[in-house]
């Protein structure tokens, strides 16, 4: 069966401020030394499995230019612009409706555009197994990441009984507190919820029709009008009327036919500036440095230089990010507070800096 | 007797890098919220005691423009440009020779251009007493600062017997280690060496003639040619031939007629970025912040903003200094290592940043 991919690239991502902005979120930035952007790496990663013509990008209208510039091999009509952000369920329904114009049925990989995977070979191997399982069933399959430590920032998947290469999902669990995360890890039964999905077009459409009929019908109307003179108008009208809902909450948590395939391919959700040292090389003092930087007695520090010299002296466990109009100096244990800075900027009407 | 002042403003000062550069050292920068530069504050501070026409600035030729721009009330001919840096003894000899053209004798105040004094009234009061003591004696008087803690970065003056408002100097002591500094402080007999001097023109000239005859004779030749067509040529030839020597080592430590007047007027040598929080207001979290800065959970941190927004999050005891072409992020306990950065820049031929 044909394999298609839907890459979700509508996120605004404030966690990489000041490098990421509303005008250029994380997926369109390079955070690795190879100079490739997150979305470029996402597309490149699946190129051996999915034809460029079968890769769909769902993004915000404002980011269409980045997609075309960074992904010249993806056909222009495969770049779908959401008129408004409505979370993942409408995004997936839209893509399913558009893909449905081309294929009666197909396997659909649904992938975030801003995650990083270290071992591409293992990842492809995992995907292939999931594709096979999806082809031969009516299951909605999510990739579960074998956890390596008791992370409290991710949702968890509780595995049930084995079913070939996949496991039935017993339950989804919200972000746990640390004791609970430790219990999950110790049980050996829990995986991190990665937000990557594999299913057949017919399977997800049936689920959408049953559990989110409004979204399903609207998406079908968008699909029917797609490419016609009314296309933009129908998209605008139908999509903006959708409720904002995640596929996790709207479908996965309410369905019985949910499976997970465990993956151990060096997954990183690149969720904050703390990730940068994990996904790049560090020096002997565990610093992760790019740009025109001179250091003296600096340890465990991430520096993303801009156009100017940065001299760092004696600092430890700090993140320094320089851009033309804003500089961030943040203690590593405070990265979650960067959102307070953005809130203050918003409060003061300084939207040009957000 | 007429009171004159010599303000020594030739220092290059790398300790305020990246704000201070060879092209604009500390004395020509504002480090306080009033926006006045260090040399402007130095001149303003003595304005009630010395006429503008009797204030002489000895500086580097490259800095004459700053002096004229920042000190419009000082006559142009009072701004003396050293052809080469030769430490304080040649600087003072030059000024004494030039002042000698105008006055047979006068009181000379010799003041660094880059120190800060909190209590101007007490300072003027101290100067007045020193002037009176200098007028009526052949003493070379240095202002000793009543120490408030066992600083190891200053030289100390050991006081001898009282002589009116001044004390005879028993000895000068190099920068002590901490136990010695503590002993000095406990004894109640030691003052910090401030580098401010008060003496009569005739007294310093006699001392120069006796202890540094080469410098004295050369300076007199410069003074004789001053204002003539040969002036620049004589200055260049004589001054560059001077050895580089401090007045402390060349005169003070070798003389008997040395006195000190204790001063407690809130003196600060503004020796590093650490001083900035001492000489400016701090907020309730003990931060000292200027420029376009947003903070979140930041403590005891000094931020000198430039043209861009600086967002500081969760950092403690850090100094952040932003300029157009260089940024410094320095732990407070590492300010002495900023010179390593400058050394590396020099090594790499990046003199435009020094």
Give the fraction of residues assigned to helices of chain A. 25-40%
Under CATH at level 1, the class of the largest domain in chain A stands as: Alpha Beta
Q: What is the quaternary state of this protein?
A: homodimer
Structural class of chain A: alpha/beta
The CATH topology of the largest domain in chain A turns out to be Spore Coat Polysaccharide Biosynthesis Protein SpsA, Chain A
What percentage of the residues of chain A does DSSP assign to strands (E)?
Answer: 25-35%
- How many strands in all of chain A? 17
- What is the CATH superfamily of the largest domain in chain A? Spore Coat Polysaccharide Biosynthesis Protein SpsA, Chain A
Q: In one word, what is the shape of chain A?
A: globular
Summarize the structure.
Two copies of one chain form a homodimer. The first copy, chain A, is an alpha/beta fold and 354 residues long.
Descriptive account of the structure:
Two copies of one chain form a homodimer. With 354 residues, chain A is α/β, with parallel strands linked by helices. Chain A folds into two domains: 3-268, Spore Coat Polysaccharide Biosynthesis Protein SpsA, Chain A; 275-353, no CATH class. Chain A contains eleven helices and 17 strands. The first copy, chain A, has helices spanning 38-45, 64-70, 88-100, 120-135, 178-187, 201-211, 213-225, 231-241, 247-250, 275-279, 338-347; strands at residues 3-9, 55-60, 79-82, 107-112, 116-117, 140-145, 156-163, 166-173, 190-200, 258-263, 267-268, 288-290, 293-296, 302-304, 309-313, 318-322, 326-331. Chain A has a five-stranded mixed barrel. In chain A, strand 1 (3-9), helix 1 (38-45) and strand 2 form a beta-alpha-beta unit. In chain A, helix 3 packs across helix 7. The radius of gyration of chain A is 21 Å and the shape is globular. Strand 17 (326-331) of chain A pairs parallel with strand 15 (309-313) of chain B, so a sheet runs across the interface.
